[in-house]
Amino acid sequence: MDFLDAITEWVRDVVEAANYPGVVAMIALENVFPPIPSELVLPLSGFLASRGDFPGPPAIAIPLTIVAATLGSLIGALILYAFGAFVSEERVRGFLRRNGRYVLLSEDDYNRAERWFNNHGHQAVFIGRCIPGIRSLISIPAGVERMPMAPFIAYTAGGSAIWNTALISAGAVLGDQWDRASEYVDVFTYVTIAVIAAAVAWFVLSRLRARRRPAED
């Protein structure tokens, strides 16, 4: 608990002092150093922006905080993508086996992210950005597989924006109780997956119907 309290205090000091650049830095760091949880940084940032601690009125500060967090997510994701692209998969696994306890990640975590990427293709990056435990790591198999940069950036930014908007908004709504936002993360994750799955199913069905119409004519 002392370590978590120290992390919380440090994150709060950085975000309060640097506002938007602080959010960018903390979220970029959170992507590559999981002991800094986004479930802490984002609700806190939303609370501070809604309270008027960031430049601009809350109606402007909250959207700018979401943009800053999404930029930080993209920077962190690109770092992990580069790590996966320039370091072999065997070395990634070896690094996690030897040093995973220091960064609170394990080889099993990587295996889960890799299976998710292999099963869902490029869309896994978009969906994975909304799933705790996979959010950051999904960028490594994307790098290992040399996923094209344009869709990687688009999917990462889109998925991150959803996650960031939800938690920053939760922090703004909860106010002084912003730290309770983490209690709703699992519910948000399941709802998000269900919504995305429904959207994908609708897209696939609509494409199938469009293909059938010329054949019927």
Characterization of the model:
There is one protein chain. The protein is mainly α. The chain has one domain (2-181). The chain has nine helices and no strands. The protein has helices at 2-32, 38-51, 58-86, 89-103, 107-120, 123-128, 139-144, 149-174, 185-216. Helix 1 (2-32) crosses helix 3. It starts with a helix and ends with a helix. The model has no long low-confidence stretch (mean pLDDT 79).
Keywords:
single chain, 217 residues, mainly alpha, globular
The mean pLDDT is 79
Give the distance, in angstroms, between the N- and C-terminal Cα atoms. 68 Å
Count of helix runs: 9
The secondary-structure class comes to mainly alpha
**Which parts are unreliable, with pLDDT below 50 for 5 consecutive residues or more?**
none
Beta-strand content estimate: under 5%
Major sheet details: none
User: How many distinct domains?
Assistant: 1
Radius of gyration (CA) equals 19 Å
Specify the helix fraction band: over 70%
Number of strands: 0
| Order of helical and strand elements | HHHHHHHHH
Shape: globular
Concise description?
This protein is mainly α and 217 residues long. It has helices at 2-32, 38-51, 58-86, 89-103, 107-120, 123-128, 139-144, 149-174, 185-216. It has one domain (2-181).
Topology overview:
Layout (H helix, E strand, L loop, with lengths): L1 H31 L5 H14 L6 H29 L2 H15 L3 H14 L2 H6 L10 H6 L4 H26 L10 H32 L1
Helix pairs in contact: 1-2, 1-3, 2-3, 2-8, 3-8
